[in-house]
Amino acid sequence: MKGNAAGFMAKSTVKAADKEHRRKINFNIGKYNAVVPQGKQQFMDVNLVREKAKNLKWKAIDTLDKQLENFEAQITKRGAKVIWAETAAQALEEIGKICKAKNCKTLVKSKSMVTEEIHLNHYLEENGIESVETDLGEYIQQLDGEPPYHIVTPAMHKSKEDVAKLFAEKLGTSPKATPQELTLVARAVLRKKYVQAEVGVTGANFIIADIGGIAVTENEGNARLSCAWPKTHIVIAGIEKVIPAMTDLGLFWPLLSTFGTGQKITVYNTIINGPRQPGETDGPDEMYVILLDNGRTNILENPKQRESLYCIRCGACLNACPVYKNIGGHAYEATYSGPIGSVITPHLKGMDDWKHLSYASSLCGNCTEVCAVRINLHELLLENRHEAVQSGYSSFGERMAWKMWRMAMLRRGWMNMAGGSTKNWVVNSMLKGWKETRGKMEFPKKSFNQMWREKKGK
């Protein structure tokens, strides 16, 4: 078993038996499940809205080259600089150049999964730059030295008592402080950082092609502060985040907020289409937009997997997944966890090392059922498994076992010849992996087919 798969099995086995972890996750996802139906009531036909959003993303991804070129042309007219980064290393190199040119000592950043993907904080730390997470959940995770646990709610696995204890250890607050008191402490710390920072970094919920804009959705206002106070604003966004027109936000903003947090609309919704213009009093002097590939074109050229690029990162599939709810976000050891992470990670980081994630699924289809843009996630997980085998990333023993299984399943007589005791021996003794994580299998002495023949005589 490869290292990545072994690490996943080890972490998931521990978390699956952690009842306290399960209690916290069920509590937090329970609150999510209580409000999402209320948010959906704003739509006359929520499934029609999901289908329309899927069609818009299909249009955007199918014409991705033209959409991105339109975006670049429009935002460049307003003074922003667009940088195309094929890999994470290229993106980091460009950010490093900008920070060096600005003599950056402190950088503030809002919540961004792409910056987690390229390990921006680690890179900045190595280069002597203080990088401060300003989203409260991300700030909590940064204090604890952990990556985000969830695409939308980074500290979902922590209770209010856990956060109070963490703040007491790191910031010297009372271990009995309330969530309101802890929030005020974080606010006081972070407000100073906004003023100190030479550079601010944000992601992008959507890249708007027709006006050359970046759409940012948030509930805390920290993204606005991150891009307005520092003199230099850097946007890092995956190329798949594009939507064709600004008018599409009338559909995507409510859809993202409802499926992400259960809100009708998030508190702050911002469109940024350049640095401060002549006559304006607010905003940065310079704005850079880094368009990141980092494996996304691998998915783009795959006709069956291309659909996964429609994802708007609402996190609904994580909240619905029975596997995610049992093993947690960190067990995946990847930036994107849950069903969508299991679909895209093997293509972003390499099928051979990450194919195991596509088996971390019950294939119940609940992820597909709740997806905001109706991505057929459970079918894509199956497609990943198929591609892994077709690409030669399966062992000889595994291929032979399935070949023998196929031969047996196509011949009823062979199946009946292998009685209950034989089947018990094959599963419980010959197949070493079965009993490691499962109870002993007990087959009946006679199959249903045999009993039917004895009763009906045919």
Strand content: 5-15%
| CATH topology value of the domain at 42-294 | Rossmann fold
Instruction: Evaluate the radius of gyration.
Output: 25 Å
Number of helices: 24
Shape: globular
Would you report the number of β strands?
A: 10
Helix content: 40-55%
Q: Can you say what the CATH homologous superfamily of the domain at 42-294 is? A: NagB/RpiA/CoA transferase-like
End-to-end separation in angstroms reads 46 Å
CATH domain class of the domain at 42-294: Alpha Beta
Give the structural class: alpha/beta
How many strands, which pairing sense, and closed or not: the largest β-sheet? 6 strands, parallel
Assembly status: single chain
Low-confidence stretches: none
Label the CATH architecture of the domain at 42-294.
Answer: 3-Layer(aba) Sandwich
Description:
It is a single chain. With 458 residues, this protein is α/β, with parallel strands linked by helices. Among the domains are: 42-294, Rossmann fold, CATH 3.40.50.10420; 396-456, no CATH class. Helix content is 54%, strand content 10%. The protein contains 24 helices and ten strands. It has a six-stranded parallel β-sheet, with helices on both faces. A four-stranded mixed β-sheet has the order 8-5-6-9, with helices on both faces. Strand 5 (206-208) and strand 6 form a beta hairpin.
Write the SSE topology.
Blueprint: H1 3-16, H2 19-40, H3 46-62, H4 64-77, E1 81-85, H5 88-101, E2 106-109, H6 113-117, H7 120-126, E3 130-133, H8 136-144, H9 160-171, H10 179-196, E4 199-202, E5 206-208, E6 213-218, H11 222-228, E7 232-238, E8 242-243, H12 249-261, E9 268-272, E10 286-292, H13 296-300, H14 316-320, H15 322-327, H16 338-349, H17 351-354, H18 366-370, H19 377-390, H20 396-409, H21 412-417, H22 420-430, H23 434-437, H24 448-456
Helix pairs in contact: 2-12, 16-19
